[in-house]
Write a structure and sequence with these properties.
CATH class of the largest domain: Alpha Beta
Number of strands: 13
InterPro entries: P-loop_NTPase (IPR027417), WH-like_DNA-bd_sf (IPR036388), WH_DNA-bd_sf (IPR036390)
Protein name: AAA domain-containing protein
Largest sheet: 9 strands, mixed
Pfam family, one: AAA_25
Helix content: 25-40%
Order of helices and strands: HHEEEHEHEHEHEHEEEEHHHHEE
Radius of gyration: 33 Å
Protein backbone atom coordinates (compact mmCIF):
# COMPACT_ATOMS: atom_id res chain seq x y z
CA UNK A 1 0.00 0.00 0.00
CA UNK A 2 1.42 3.36 -0.86
CA UNK A 3 2.54 5.36 2.09
CA UNK A 4 -0.05 7.98 1.50
CA UNK A 5 -2.77 5.35 1.85
CA UNK A 6 -1.87 4.45 5.46
CA UNK A 7 -4.29 6.39 7.61
CA UNK A 8 -3.18 7.98 10.84
CA UNK A 9 -5.28 7.93 14.04
CA UNK A 10 -7.36 10.80 12.77
CA UNK A 11 -8.11 9.11 9.44
CA UNK A 12 -5.67 11.40 7.64
CA UNK A 13 -2.92 10.13 5.32
CA UNK A 14 0.46 9.61 6.99
CA UNK A 15 3.43 11.63 5.87
CA UNK A 16 7.05 10.40 5.77
CA UNK A 17 7.96 12.46 8.82
CA UNK A 18 5.16 10.79 10.76
CA UNK A 19 6.67 7.39 10.13
CA UNK A 20 10.26 8.23 10.93
CA UNK A 21 9.50 10.54 13.89
CA UNK A 22 6.07 9.47 15.08
CA UNK A 23 6.22 11.76 18.17
CA UNK A 24 7.60 14.77 16.38
CA UNK A 25 7.38 17.60 17.15
CA UNK A 26 7.60 17.05 20.89
CA UNK A 27 5.15 18.89 23.09
CA UNK A 28 6.33 22.30 24.09
CA UNK A 29 7.65 22.19 27.68
CA UNK A 30 7.27 25.35 29.63
CA UNK A 31 9.97 25.73 32.29
CA UNK A 32 8.60 26.56 35.71
CA UNK A 33 9.01 30.12 36.75
CA UNK A 34 12.28 30.59 38.60
CA UNK A 35 11.83 32.12 42.03
CA UNK A 36 14.73 33.44 44.02
CA UNK A 37 14.36 33.61 47.81
CA UNK A 38 16.37 36.48 49.13
CA UNK A 39 17.67 36.28 52.68
CA UNK A 40 15.83 38.45 55.13
CA UNK A 41 17.48 41.79 55.50
CA UNK A 42 19.04 42.21 58.92
CA UNK A 43 19.56 45.65 60.35
CA UNK A 44 22.90 45.57 62.21
CA UNK A 45 21.85 48.69 64.14
CA UNK A 46 18.61 47.20 65.45
CA UNK A 47 20.13 46.63 68.91
CA UNK A 48 22.35 49.69 68.99
CA UNK A 49 22.59 51.83 72.12
CA UNK A 50 23.22 55.50 72.40
CA UNK A 51 25.59 56.31 75.22
CA UNK A 52 22.97 58.13 77.28
CA UNK A 53 20.42 55.31 76.96
CA UNK A 54 23.01 52.69 77.87
CA UNK A 55 24.09 54.61 80.97
CA UNK A 56 20.45 55.06 82.02
CA UNK A 57 19.67 51.34 81.69
CA UNK A 58 19.45 49.14 84.81
CA UNK A 59 20.90 45.65 84.45
CA UNK A 60 20.64 42.79 86.89
CA UNK A 61 23.99 41.92 88.50
CA UNK A 62 25.63 38.68 87.33
CA UNK A 63 24.67 35.48 89.09
CA UNK A 64 27.51 33.87 91.02
CA UNK A 65 28.19 30.18 91.43
CA UNK A 66 30.82 31.12 94.02
CA UNK A 67 30.59 34.79 95.08
CA UNK A 68 33.70 36.73 94.15
CA UNK A 69 35.31 33.82 92.32
CA UNK A 70 33.05 32.18 89.74
CA UNK A 71 30.35 34.27 88.07
CA UNK A 72 27.95 33.18 85.38
CA UNK A 73 29.65 32.68 82.04
CA UNK A 74 32.52 30.53 80.85
CA UNK A 75 35.33 29.89 83.35
CA UNK A 76 38.60 28.04 82.88
CA UNK A 77 40.09 26.18 85.82
CA UNK A 78 43.60 25.24 84.75
CA UNK A 79 46.48 23.55 86.49
CA UNK A 80 49.36 21.17 86.05
CA UNK A 81 48.66 17.43 86.15
CA UNK A 82 47.85 16.24 89.68
CA UNK A 83 47.74 19.80 91.04
CA UNK A 84 44.32 19.11 92.53
CA UNK A 85 42.08 20.94 90.06
CA UNK A 86 39.63 18.03 89.78
CA UNK A 87 39.41 17.84 93.57
CA UNK A 88 38.68 21.57 93.61
CA UNK A 89 36.00 21.28 90.92
CA UNK A 90 34.33 18.40 92.78
CA UNK A 91 34.41 20.40 96.02
CA UNK A 92 32.56 23.23 94.30
CA UNK A 93 30.06 20.90 92.63
CA UNK A 94 29.14 19.14 95.86
CA UNK A 95 28.85 22.37 97.83
CA UNK A 96 26.63 24.13 95.30
CA UNK A 97 24.41 21.06 94.80
CA UNK A 98 23.95 20.79 98.58
CA UNK A 99 23.85 24.53 99.27
CA UNK A 100 26.65 24.23 101.84
CA UNK A 101 29.70 26.54 102.20
CA UNK A 102 32.64 25.87 99.89
CA UNK A 103 36.38 26.53 100.18
CA UNK A 104 36.16 26.84 103.92
CA UNK A 105 33.34 29.19 104.68
CA UNK A 106 31.99 31.03 101.64
CA UNK A 107 28.22 30.68 101.31
CA UNK A 108 26.69 29.69 97.96
CA UNK A 109 23.14 29.56 96.64
CA UNK A 110 21.97 25.97 96.10
CA UNK A 111 21.20 24.68 92.65
CA UNK A 112 21.54 21.63 90.46
CA UNK A 113 24.96 20.82 89.05
CA UNK A 114 26.05 18.74 86.07
CA UNK A 115 29.55 17.26 86.42
CA UNK A 116 31.12 15.54 83.42
CA UNK A 117 34.05 13.66 84.98
CA UNK A 118 35.50 12.32 81.76
CA UNK A 119 38.86 11.21 83.16
CA UNK A 120 37.35 9.32 86.12
CA UNK A 121 35.50 6.10 86.77
CA UNK A 122 32.35 5.76 88.90
CA UNK A 123 34.37 3.98 91.59
CA UNK A 124 36.95 6.77 91.78
CA UNK A 125 34.21 9.40 91.97
CA UNK A 126 32.54 7.48 94.76
CA UNK A 127 35.80 7.31 96.71
CA UNK A 128 36.50 11.00 96.26
CA UNK A 129 33.00 12.10 97.20
CA UNK A 130 33.10 9.84 100.25
CA UNK A 131 36.25 11.62 101.40
CA UNK A 132 34.84 15.10 100.84
CA UNK A 133 31.39 14.45 102.28
CA UNK A 134 32.41 12.51 105.36
CA UNK A 135 29.18 11.93 107.29
CA UNK A 136 27.18 14.45 105.23
CA UNK A 137 24.57 13.03 102.83
CA UNK A 138 25.30 13.06 99.10
CA UNK A 139 23.24 15.75 97.35
CA UNK A 140 20.61 14.54 94.89
CA UNK A 141 21.11 17.76 92.92
CA UNK A 142 24.49 16.64 91.54
CA UNK A 143 24.37 14.67 88.28
CA UNK A 144 27.60 12.90 87.28
CA UNK A 145 28.64 11.21 84.05
CA UNK A 146 31.96 9.63 83.08
CA UNK A 147 31.14 9.32 79.35
CA UNK A 148 29.63 11.98 77.11
CA UNK A 149 29.65 12.96 73.42
CA UNK A 150 31.83 15.85 72.36
CA UNK A 151 30.25 19.28 72.11
CA UNK A 152 30.04 19.33 68.28
CA UNK A 153 28.84 15.70 68.13
CA UNK A 154 25.69 16.24 70.18
CA UNK A 155 27.17 17.03 73.58
CA UNK A 156 26.20 20.71 73.49
CA UNK A 157 22.59 19.85 72.61
CA UNK A 158 22.49 17.19 75.35
CA UNK A 159 23.64 19.71 77.96
CA UNK A 160 20.99 22.16 76.75
CA UNK A 161 18.38 19.43 77.06
CA UNK A 162 19.44 18.80 80.66
CA UNK A 163 19.29 22.51 81.47
CA UNK A 164 15.88 22.92 79.82
CA UNK A 165 14.34 20.68 82.48
CA UNK A 166 16.27 22.11 85.44
CA UNK A 167 15.58 25.78 85.84
CA UNK A 168 17.40 25.86 89.19
CA UNK A 169 20.70 24.69 87.64
CA UNK A 170 23.67 26.83 88.64
CA UNK A 171 26.79 25.05 87.38
CA UNK A 172 28.10 22.76 84.65
CA UNK A 173 31.61 21.31 85.04
CA UNK A 174 33.43 19.74 82.09
CA UNK A 175 36.47 17.82 83.33
CA UNK A 176 38.46 17.93 81.13
CA UNK A 177 37.81 20.24 78.20
CA UNK A 178 40.11 18.29 75.87
CA UNK A 179 37.68 15.34 76.06
CA UNK A 180 34.73 17.48 74.96
CA UNK A 181 36.04 19.96 72.40
CA UNK A 182 35.92 17.60 69.42
CA UNK A 183 38.04 17.66 66.27
CA UNK A 184 38.80 20.88 64.44
CA UNK A 185 37.56 21.40 60.90
CA UNK A 186 40.22 20.79 58.23
CA UNK A 187 42.15 23.88 57.20
CA UNK A 188 41.14 26.01 60.20
CA UNK A 189 44.07 27.75 61.86
CA UNK A 190 44.72 26.78 65.52
CA UNK A 191 43.58 30.11 66.99
CA UNK A 192 40.22 30.01 65.21
CA UNK A 193 39.78 26.34 66.12
CA UNK A 194 40.42 27.02 69.82
CA UNK A 195 38.12 30.04 69.83
CA UNK A 196 35.34 28.11 68.10
CA UNK A 197 35.68 25.17 70.51
CA UNK A 198 35.47 27.49 73.50
CA UNK A 199 32.55 29.31 71.89
CA UNK A 200 30.41 26.15 71.93
CA UNK A 201 30.67 26.00 75.72
CA UNK A 202 30.33 29.76 76.16
CA UNK A 203 27.09 29.84 74.17
CA UNK A 204 25.56 27.43 76.70
CA UNK A 205 26.64 29.60 79.64
CA UNK A 206 25.33 32.78 78.02
CA UNK A 207 22.04 31.23 76.88
CA UNK A 208 21.10 29.90 80.32
CA UNK A 209 22.83 32.48 82.53
CA UNK A 210 24.80 29.89 84.48
CA UNK A 211 28.43 29.16 85.24
CA UNK A 212 30.25 26.65 83.03
CA UNK A 213 33.68 25.53 84.25
CA UNK A 214 36.13 23.92 81.84
CA UNK A 215 38.90 22.05 83.62
CA UNK A 216 42.03 22.58 81.54
CA UNK A 217 45.79 22.09 81.56
CA UNK A 218 48.75 24.43 81.96
CA UNK A 219 51.89 24.13 79.89
CA UNK A 220 55.12 23.05 81.54
CA UNK A 221 56.84 26.27 80.51
CA UNK A 222 56.24 29.12 82.98
CA UNK A 223 55.42 32.67 81.86
CA UNK A 224 55.18 36.09 83.46
CA UNK A 225 51.46 36.16 82.66
CA UNK A 226 49.72 33.02 83.90
CA UNK A 227 47.16 33.22 81.07
CA UNK A 228 50.02 32.57 78.65
CA UNK A 229 50.59 29.20 80.36
CA UNK A 230 47.23 27.81 79.24
CA UNK A 231 47.50 24.85 76.90
CA UNK A 232 46.56 25.90 73.36
CA UNK A 233 46.58 29.23 71.57
CA UNK A 234 45.43 32.64 72.79
CA UNK A 235 42.01 31.69 71.45
CA UNK A 236 41.47 29.66 74.64
CA UNK A 237 42.07 32.60 76.96
CA UNK A 238 40.36 35.08 74.65
CA UNK A 239 37.01 33.28 74.68
CA UNK A 240 36.84 32.69 78.46
CA UNK A 241 35.02 35.09 80.77
CA UNK A 242 37.03 34.03 83.84
CA UNK A 243 40.43 32.34 84.04
CA UNK A 244 41.72 30.57 87.14
CA UNK A 245 45.11 28.89 87.33
CA UNK A 246 45.78 26.63 90.31
CA UNK A 247 49.46 26.28 91.10
CA UNK A 248 50.73 24.02 93.86
CA UNK A 249 54.31 22.81 94.26
CA UNK A 250 54.55 19.01 94.11
CA UNK A 251 54.22 17.57 97.62
CA UNK A 252 53.11 20.87 99.17
CA UNK A 253 49.70 21.52 100.71
CA UNK A 254 49.64 25.25 100.00
CA UNK A 255 49.11 26.69 96.55
CA UNK A 256 47.94 29.82 94.78
CA UNK A 257 44.81 30.39 92.74
CA UNK A 258 45.49 33.09 90.13
CA UNK A 259 42.28 34.77 88.97
CA UNK A 260 41.40 37.23 86.24
CA UNK A 261 38.32 37.89 84.15
CA UNK A 262 35.64 40.21 82.90
CA UNK A 263 33.51 40.20 86.04
CA UNK A 264 36.05 39.38 88.75
CA UNK A 265 38.81 41.35 90.40
CA UNK A 266 42.27 40.20 89.37
CA UNK A 267 43.78 38.51 92.38
CA UNK A 268 46.04 35.82 93.75
CA UNK A 269 44.43 33.77 96.50
CA UNK A 270 46.26 31.45 98.86
CA UNK A 271 44.83 27.93 98.89
CA UNK A 272 45.43 24.89 101.09
CA UNK A 273 44.66 21.30 100.19
CA UNK A 274 43.71 18.87 102.96
CA UNK A 275 44.53 15.37 101.65
CA UNK A 276 42.87 13.64 104.60
CA UNK A 277 39.39 14.78 103.52
CA UNK A 278 40.07 15.92 99.94
CA UNK A 279 38.98 19.52 100.53
CA UNK A 280 40.39 22.84 99.42
CA UNK A 281 40.43 25.88 101.72
CA UNK A 282 40.87 29.52 100.73
CA UNK A 283 43.36 31.17 103.11
CA UNK A 284 43.40 34.71 104.44
CA UNK A 285 46.18 37.16 103.68
CA UNK A 286 48.51 37.63 100.72
CA UNK A 287 49.21 34.48 98.76
CA UNK A 288 52.96 35.10 98.82
CA UNK A 289 53.07 34.74 102.59
CA UNK A 290 51.91 31.14 102.24
CA UNK A 291 54.27 29.99 99.51
CA UNK A 292 57.66 31.30 100.70
CA UNK A 293 59.59 29.64 103.49
CA UNK A 294 62.86 29.80 105.34
CA UNK A 295 64.89 32.99 105.00
CA UNK A 296 62.53 34.42 102.38
CA UNK A 297 59.56 34.09 104.72
CA UNK A 298 61.49 35.76 107.53
CA UNK A 299 62.62 38.64 105.26
CA UNK A 300 59.12 39.20 103.95
CA UNK A 301 57.58 39.14 107.43
CA UNK A 302 60.12 41.71 108.66
CA UNK A 303 59.58 44.03 105.70
CA UNK A 304 55.84 43.97 106.25
CA UNK A 305 56.55 45.41 109.69
CA UNK A 306 59.48 47.65 108.68
CA UNK A 307 59.16 48.52 104.97
CA UNK A 308 62.11 50.23 103.35
CA UNK A 309 64.82 48.43 105.32
CA UNK A 310 68.26 47.69 103.91
CA UNK A 311 69.81 44.20 103.84
CA UNK A 312 72.07 45.21 106.72
CA UNK A 313 69.11 46.30 108.83
CA UNK A 314 67.24 43.12 107.96
CA UNK A 315 70.17 40.83 108.77
CA UNK A 316 70.80 42.62 112.10
CA UNK A 317 67.13 42.29 113.06
CA UNK A 318 66.94 38.63 112.07
CA UNK A 319 70.36 37.63 113.32
CA UNK A 320 71.19 36.17 109.92
CA UNK A 321 74.37 36.35 107.86
CA UNK A 322 74.46 39.71 106.08
CA UNK A 323 75.69 38.39 102.72
CA UNK A 324 73.09 35.62 102.77
CA UNK A 325 70.30 38.13 103.43
CA UNK A 326 71.60 40.43 100.70
CA UNK A 327 71.52 37.59 98.14
CA UNK A 328 68.07 36.51 99.33
CA UNK A 329 66.73 40.04 98.89
CA UNK A 330 68.23 40.27 95.41
CA UNK A 331 66.65 36.96 94.37
CA UNK A 332 63.30 37.88 95.86
CA UNK A 333 63.29 41.16 93.93
CA UNK A 334 64.07 39.26 90.72
CA UNK A 335 61.12 36.95 91.48
CA UNK A 336 58.80 39.93 92.10
CA UNK A 337 58.50 38.96 95.76
CA UNK A 338 60.03 42.26 96.89
CA UNK A 339 60.38 45.77 95.49
CA UNK A 340 63.83 47.37 95.48
CA UNK A 341 64.59 51.09 95.28
CA UNK A 342 67.65 52.53 93.48
CA UNK A 343 69.05 53.26 96.93
CA UNK A 344 69.04 49.55 97.75
CA UNK A 345 66.11 49.51 100.17
CA UNK A 346 63.42 46.87 100.03
CA UNK A 347 59.64 46.89 100.33
CA UNK A 348 56.97 44.18 100.27
CA UNK A 349 55.39 43.61 96.86
CA UNK A 350 52.39 45.67 95.90
CA UNK A 351 49.27 43.84 96.92
CA UNK A 352 47.01 42.81 94.07
CA UNK A 353 44.70 40.89 96.39
CA UNK A 354 41.39 42.30 97.50
CA UNK A 355 41.54 43.10 101.23
CA UNK A 356 39.89 40.44 103.34
CA UNK A 357 39.46 36.73 102.78
CA UNK A 358 37.18 36.82 99.74
CA UNK A 359 37.51 38.85 96.54
CA UNK A 360 34.96 41.59 96.05
CA UNK A 361 31.84 40.80 94.04
CA UNK A 362 31.40 43.43 91.29
CA UNK A 363 27.91 44.86 91.19
CA UNK A 364 27.04 43.66 94.70
CA UNK A 365 26.92 46.10 97.64
CA UNK A 366 29.80 45.56 100.10
CA UNK A 367 27.36 44.37 102.78
CA UNK A 368 26.51 41.35 100.59
CA UNK A 369 30.10 40.37 99.93
CA UNK A 370 31.13 37.31 102.01
CA UNK A 371 33.39 38.24 104.89
Amino acid sequence: MPLAEYPDHDGQPLQMADVIYPDWPPPLEVEPEQTTTRPAKVDPFAKAWTADRLMAETFAPPRWAVPGLIPEGLSLLAGAPKAGKSWLALNLALGIAAGTPVLGEVDVDPGQVLYLALEDTPRRLQNRMGKILGDAPAPAGLTLLTEFPTLPAGGADAIRGWLDTRHDARLVVIDVFAKMRGNSAPGVNPYDADYAAMGRAKSIADQYGIAVILVHHLRKMAADDFTAELSGTNGVAGAADTIMALKRPRGEADGVLHITGRDVDEAERAMRFHPDNGTWELLAGPALDHIVSGTRAAVLAYLRKVPGASPKEISDALGEDRESVRKTCTRMAADDQLRRTPAGRYYPPERTETPGLWPAVPGVPPSQTPT
